[in-house]
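Posting this for the archive.
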Amino acid sequence: MSFSFRQLIERKRDGEVLRAEEIRWIIAEYTAGRLPDYQMAALLMAVFKEGLDGPELEVWTDAMLYSGEVLDLSHINAPKVDKHSTGGVGDKVSIPLAPMVAACGAAVPMMSGRGLGHTGGTVDKLESIPGFRTKLTPDEFVSVVEKTGLVLAGQSGSLAPADGAIYSLRDATGSVPSIPLIASSIMSKKLAVGLGALVLDVKVGRGAFMKDLDRARLLAETIVGIGKAQGTPVVAVLTDMNQPLGRMVGNATEIAESIEVLHGGGPPDLVEVVYRLGEEMLMLAGISSERADARRRLEQAVSSGAAFEKLQQVTVAQGGDPAVLLDPSLLPQAENEHIVRATKGGYVVRVDAFEIGTAALRLGAGRERKEDDIDPSVGIAVEAKTGDEVTAGQALARIFWNDGSRLADALPLTESAFEISEQRGSPLVYGEVR
């Protein structure tokens, strides 16, 4: 079966609905390398402008899911549950959360992404642990889950390969914030690893791809709908991303903060989001029937050391050096530090997540181009959060840097991210969609 790709682009551009066989042909041909990037980019922009209706989106997601291998984890005698975030600044939630949930008896087959624009990526953070391999074959992926009850891996070229190709093209052509493309990207990856349920963390605010609550809720509803069509329960929690989550923004710095959480510490906002998502995961997995019991189990996993032990196990299984978990000072460290101080006293009313994330990107903590290398040691420590009272001269942020020209680019953004005035705050969790 063959179609005119140009005609399909024109039809979608003009708001027409594509048939199921046309969509499957598009995904199969592009995955096989028989459709050029420039034409696929045109189609993605048409989808960005015109959207995909319910049946179109179901077929698009299903075609991406079956564009490669689909793992079978049915032989693992534990409920399979995963978590996904739509991306934020300082969002290291997966790193403490996955071991906590696995320590409570679930299997967590987690496939994570790299940084996208100003937002950080779990894979980049994990790779700041010396030796930690996130690029696993499907057989290795399954083997690590069998051994440890979880895996923290990047996207495999053989699992949902259509998404990997389309994801890079979206990033390069400005079509990232499309709700149907985001939803199909997330669900094709997640369904490919054989999970039984998913908790989605939809970030809302300045540092998120979804800037307003209505669009964030629509994305949540769209993904929950795809889950229902595929027979996979999904719960979406909408959380704030107007300011960075936790204190640390970077890669190695966020690993260190994740270890704090697994030892019972960590910033209150980060801890709250980790536990809230963990509660949902344990309830979806059927391990807990109510939130209070789920919370108790998660707290016990931390206080007993079982959750931290899970992180050690998966680090060893994926080739990482467990010594850095026991002594985070062994993680990559930047050579220099610059302190941004308050110019007046008052209350912090804004810590702009987008500007902080962009500043960390400029330091080298992220990629401005796909081929750029990441410096795992650089980053920003946010010392004052929204609602905090500060005095003139007090530290608002610490910048960890290696390159003076990069510091010069990052410093104005960090300084302008903070606003001090009268006290004001915003909620951390906006609601949920089931």
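The CA atoms of residues 310 and 424 lie 39 Å apart. Residues 213-230 form the longest helix (18 residues).
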